Amino acid sequence: MSAAAVDLDAAADIASMDLFNPTEEHAMLRETVRSFSDSEIRPQALEYNRKEMFNRELFNKVGDLGLLGVTVDEEYGGSGMDAVAACIVHEEMSAADPAFTLSYLAHSMLFVNNLSQNGNHEQKLKYLPDACTGAKVCGMGMSEPGAGTDVLGMKTTATKSADGSTYTLNGNKMWITNGTLDGETTGDAYLIYARTGEKRSEVSMFLVDKNMPGFTLGQKIEDKLGMRASMTAEIVFDNVVVPAENLVGEEHGAALCMMRNLEIERIALAAMSLGIARRSVEVMNNYAAERQAFGESINSFGQMQRHIADSYAEYMAGRAYTYNVARHLDLASYGNGLDADGVKLFCAKMGKDVADRAIQVLGGNGYVGEYHVEQLWRDAKLLEIGGGTNEAHHKNMVRDLKRHHTTLK
C-alpha cells in the first residue's frame, strides 16, 4: 500500500480506541458523558460560577447516569468500571465546567471510591447506594489550617472511649470541597482523617454524618480565584462522638488508605486539566479560523500558529501520559505514586498554560466571560495546588526516582 493510500482517519481511530477508549464500553461512556456535558453542564457553567453556587439539580442528573459511583461495584450501586473510566468522566466534564467537576471528584473519588476500596461491607452497604444516586452529597476531610502538604502534621484528634465503643473527634478541617452545599450547613457525610496516636503515622479514618452533635460548618470560603461553583468550607468537630463501627480500615492505618486514594485523585485531577486544555484548544482554534485581521484569518500568522500548535501537542502528550498511567492503576492497591505525581505535575501546568494561550489568541475577547477561557484559566490554577502542590510532586518524584537512580524501566 502506498503512503497516499493509508487511511489516516482509520489509523487514528484505532490508536484512539487503544489508548483513550480501550474498550467499546469506554468509548460508549465517553460519548455519553460528552453529550451530557455539552447539553447539561456547559450551559450552566458561567451562571453558577458567578453565583458561587453548587448545582444540586445537575448533580442529581449525573447520579441518574450512574456516574457518581463509576468505580464502585454494582453490588453497592456503582458502575463497576476502572481508572480509565474515571479519567474519561473527569476529562469530558471538566471541558464543560471544571468547578462542577471538582465537586464531582470530591464526592466520587475522595468519598465514594475511597470508601469502596477501604471500607467494610456494612459501611459500603450503608453509605454507597445513596452516594451513587446523588441522594447524598459527600466529601473528605484531610487538610487543616496548619496541615496541607504536611498532612501527617494534622491536629484533629479522635480519642477512643474506655470501653472502645466510640471515638470523640475534636479539631477542624480546612479547604473542604463540598464542605457546604448551600452556605448554611455541611454536606451529608464525610471521610475524616484524625490522629489516634502519638506517632505521626498513627492516623485513622472515620465516617462522619451531617447531623452528628458537635459537627458544624465553620467558615465558608468565598471570593476564590476560580472553581467558584464548587463550594469550599471549613468544617468543625467539637466533641463529636462517632461509633466505633464508623472507623474505616484499621486503627492507626489510614496512611495506607490515604496513599492509595491519592493516586486515583491525582490522576483524576490530571484528567480535569486535560478537559481544560482540550476546551481551550478548541476555542482558540475555532476563533483563529474565523477572526480576520489585515485581510486574512489570524491563524495564518506565525504567532497564533505557535500558540495553537504548542497547545495541541502538549495536550496530546499529557493525555497519552495520563491514560497510560490510568490503564495500569489498580484501584485496590497502591505503588504507582511516581507517575500519579508525574501526570498531575505535568498536566496541571500544561492546562494552565494552554488556557493562558487561549486568552492570548482571543485578545480582548479572551479576557471576558463570553468565550469561557478566562474561567478555564482561573479554574486551572487550583490544579497546581489542590491534591498536591507542584512542589510536593517534585519532592515525591525525586524521592521515588532515587530508587531508580541507575536505570528507568
TrEMBL record:
The keyword Lipid biosynthesis is annotated on this UniProt entry: no
All residue ranges annotated as the Acyl-CoA oxidase/dehydrogenase middle domain in the record: 140-240
Organism of provenance: Florenciella parvula
Enzymatic reactions: (2S)-2-methylbutanoyl-CoA + oxidized [electron-transfer flavoprotein] + H(+) = (2E)-2-methylbut-2-enoyl-CoA + reduced [electron-transfer flavoprotein]
Family the UniProt entry places it in: Belongs to the acyl-CoA dehydrogenase family.
MF GO annotations: 3-methylbutanoyl-CoA dehydrogenase activity; flavin adenine dinucleotide binding
Segments forming a coiled coil: none
Transmembrane segments: none
Single Gene Ontology BP annotation: L-leucine catabolic process
Lineage: Eukaryota, Sar, Stramenopiles, Ochrophyta, Dictyochophyceae
Record protein name field: Isovaleryl-CoA dehydrogenase
Superkingdom: Eukaryota
Record-annotated Acyl-CoA dehydrogenase/oxidase N-terminal domain positions: 23-134
One Pfam family cited in the UniProt record for this chain: Acyl-CoA_dh_M
Acyl-CoA dehydrogenase/oxidase C-terminal domain sequence ranges: 258-399
Key words of the record: FAD, Flavoprotein, Oxidoreductase
Cofactors, names only: FAD
Keyword Oxidoreductase: yes
